[in-house]
Write a structure and sequence with these properties.
The complex is a heterodimer of chains A (99) and B (163).
Chain A lengths: L2 H8 L9 H11 L7 H61 L1
Chain B lengths: L4 H20 L2 H17 L7 H25 L20 H12 L3 H11 L5 H8 L3 H25 L1
Helix pairs in contact in B: 1-2, 1-3, 2-3, 3-5, 5-6, 5-7, 6-7
Classes of the chains: A mainly alpha (99), B mainly alpha (163).
Chain lengths: 99, 163
């Protein structure tokens, strides 16, 4: 007796039970692939937001700071103009008195 | 390359079910485990590149699941219908009793050796393929085969002497 041949005979494949494949296919309609599950979609959306939001916030803050600096500059220019006006007026008055 | 899941099921159902059945000798558990493995494949279908890859993946997955299940059962032995020999039906086997005895001897092998013997004699895989599938060195596969055959041969000879 050749044991290896006997083992091949004893262990040959057996047909799956009737309806086995249909039962699996029926279950796949209930089991969604990982990439289509709500949890996966939520995680993907969260990751996308995490990638988009911080640069957007950074850009918003940079613009805010720009506007603030522009306002300060305009205010400084306005003060300087007023002081220059006053100084010019004083010079004009002094010059008139001397004449 | 897209893989047609329904086609994969049809082509591999017998392979996966038989491996589980021969490993556990419990039709109900074998069907349940085989279904689980197919559903697991369905979830990973995007990673599967070809029908051959699907077959390879299924063989590997069912072997590992069977090894885990058999280990669990060793800790919590189940006594049920599976302990009863399969009903005798008219068979094409020249010696159904010998076949049944061989299947029982395979069932009694340690889990890793059992997986090696099933992949070698049911699936006709080479030791190098088995080694890759079960993540073990080729030398270990060969040693499992050698020892398992020696044990089975010894038991069969003993039985002949006792007759």
């Amino acid at each position: 007796m050749n044991l290896e041949d006997e083992l091949r005979r004893a262990l040959r494949q057996e047909p799956a039970p009737a309806g086995f494949g249909d039962r699996i296919l029926a279950k796949t309609t209930r089991v969604q692939p990982v990439w289509r599950r709500p949890v996966t979609l939520a995680v993907a959306a969260a990751l996308a937001l995490a990638a988009i939001i911080p640069p957007a916030v950074k850009e918003y803050r940079r613009r805010e700071r720009g506007v603030e600096v522009r306002d300060q500059l305009l205010s400084a220019l306005s003060i300087t103009r007023a002081q220059l006006g006053q100084t010019r007026e004083k010079i004009r008055q002094n010059t008139r008195h001397k004449i | 390359m897209a893989v047609d899941f329904a086609r994969v099921v049809v082509d591999n159902q017998s392979l996966v079910f038989s491996l589980a059945l021969r490993f556990l000798r419990d039709r109900e558990a074998a069907e349940e485990l085989a279904q689980d493995v197919f559903l697991q494949l369905y979830e990973k279908l995007r990673q599967i590149q070809s029908p051959a890859h699907a077959t390879w993946w299924l063989r590997r997955a069912i072997c590992h699941r069977c090894i885990d299940e058999a280990r669990k059962r060793r800790l919590r032995p189940r006594i049920g219908l599976e302990a009863v020999p399969e009903p005798f039906v008219e068979s094409r086997d020249p010696d159904p009793l010998l076949n049944e005895r061989l299947r029982r001897m395979v069932e009694e092998l340690p889990e890793s050796a059992r997986a090696v013997v099933l992949l070698r004699y049911q699936e006709d895989l080479d030791p190098s393929d088995i080694a890759e599938m079960l993540s073990m060195p080729v030398s270990t596969v060969k040693s499992h085969l050698h020892r398992s055959l020696a044990v089975m041969r010894g038991r069969l000879e003993k039985r002949e002497i006792c007759r």
